[in-house]
């Protein structure tokens, strides 16, 4: 079973930065945590959960939604079993609850349904 705990959200002015963290624990396939990929998603009030970024666990390959490209950076520290999302030049439209997700089984990692485990989310609010 995999557990994910997000932190680092908060209130920031437009143009500011935040760094989200996702601490992971548990086991995958009966061994030390080693998912295929980790992702960040966000959900604003009244909207569907949307993809933000993903990173493959072993090779570190990254992929971003257009909304965060050139502003957001996803990274991981395999030794600490932690995934990060550095968000720069934040905009009011980035306001949402941000969720960390784990994809245990290899395959597509582009939409929420592809991921098997989720954290509880952390609120990010960007004021204008």
| Principal-axes shape call | globular
Please describe the biggest sheet, giving its number of strands, its sense, and whether it closes into a barrel. 7 strands, mixed
Strand residue percentage: over 45%
Give the number of DSSP strands: 12
Low-confidence stretches: none
Averaged pLDDT: 93
Structural class: mainly beta
Q: Provide the helix percentage.
A: under 10%
**End-to-end CA span:** 40 Å
Please give the count of helices. Answer: 0
Radius of gyration: 14 Å
Summarize the structure.
The protein is built from no helices and twelve strands.
Features:
five-stranded antiparallel beta sheet; 12 strands
If you had to describe this structure to a student in words, what would you say it looks like?
By secondary structure, the protein is mostly beta strands. Helices cover 0% and strands 53% of the residues. The strands form two sheets. Strands 2, 5, 6, 7, 10, 11 and 12 form a seven-stranded mixed beta sheet that branches.
């Amino acid at each position: 079973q995999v557990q994910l705990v997000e932190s680092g959200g908060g209130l920031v002015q437009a143009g500011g930065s935040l760094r989200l963290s996702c601490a992971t624990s548990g086991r995958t396939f009966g061994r030390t945590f080693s998912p295929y990929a980790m992702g960040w998603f966000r959900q604003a009030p009244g909207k569907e959960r949307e993809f933000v970024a993903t990173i493959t666990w072993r090779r570190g390959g990254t992929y971003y939604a257009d909304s965060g490209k050139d502003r957001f950076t996803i990274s991981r520290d395999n030794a600490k079993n932690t995934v990060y999302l550095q968000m720069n030049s934040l905009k009011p439209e980035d306001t949402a609850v941000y969720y960390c997700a784990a994809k245990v089984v290899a395959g597509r990692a582009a939409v929420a349904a592809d991921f098997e485990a989720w954290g509880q989310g952390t609120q990010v609010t960007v004021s204008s």
